[in-house]
């Protein structure tokens, strides 16, 4: 099945790609949130150090150029995340929770701007960072799991998990989805602990 190019064809690889999501263990709210390749090179990083989505978050490449901007919108009873190209007003896709149940077992739906119905789903255990991004309910676009580490990132003293991106899948798209899932998990953890951080 052919995957669509969502952000840019330059972020697609003909072979399977292993990415690592790294964040400093001791400084969760002030540490850096970066997504690296298997060699430990930074591919994407958050505009700000906190992994929380407020009204606007920008994911940048290693040269500080904006790749996508993520807007959090409060629509009806659940949060919706709209993702735009760079810092423009060109919308690429929207992410929302399908069931509005307990966050550990949610299914998220992703609708591309050009489509009339959701094209991707995100399913799994978000608390344990073990979930899949599924294309048209049949093909795995990316698998997120603690087991997909690279040795380089394991020895940097950061809290890591891995992302296995299928061939020809847009890595910037996957990274934006992973960033949204990380932020949702962090915000819910803050709510449940009774703390709130700006």
UniProtKB/TrEMBL annotation:
A Pfam family for this UniProt protein?
LOR
What InterPro entries is this protein classified in? LOR, LOR_sf, Tubby-like_C
SUPFAM superfamilies, alphabetically? Tubby C-terminal domain-like
- Which family is annotated? Belongs to the LOR family.
Name this polypeptide is given: Tubby C-terminal domain-containing protein
Q: Report the source organism.
A: Marchantia polymorpha subsp. ruderalis
């Amino acid at each position: 099945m052919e995957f669509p190019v969502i952000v840019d064809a330059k972020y697609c690889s003909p072979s399977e790609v292993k990415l690592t999501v790294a964040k400093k263990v001791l400084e969760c709210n002030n540490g850096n949130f970066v997504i690296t390749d298997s060699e430990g090179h930074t591919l994407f990083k958050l505009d700000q150090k906190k992994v929380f989505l407020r009204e606007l978050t920008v994911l940048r490449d290693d040269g500080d150029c904006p790749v996508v901007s993520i807007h959090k919108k409060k629509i009806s009873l659940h949060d919706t995340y709209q993702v735009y190209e760079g810092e423009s007003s060109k919308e690429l896709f929207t992410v929302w929770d399908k069931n509005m149940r307990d966050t550990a077992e949610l299914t998220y739906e992703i609708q591309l701007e050009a489509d009339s119905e959701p094209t991707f789903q995100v399913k799994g255990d978000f608390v344990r960072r073990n979930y899949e991004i599924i294309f048209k309910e049949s093909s795995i676009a990316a698998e997120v799991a603690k087991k997909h580490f690279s040795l380089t990132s394991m020895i940097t003293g950061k809290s890591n998990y891995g992302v296995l991106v299928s061939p020809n899948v847009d890595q910037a798209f996957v990274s934006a989805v992973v960033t949204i899932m990380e932020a949702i998990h962090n915000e819910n953890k803050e709510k449940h602990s009774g703390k709130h951080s700006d």
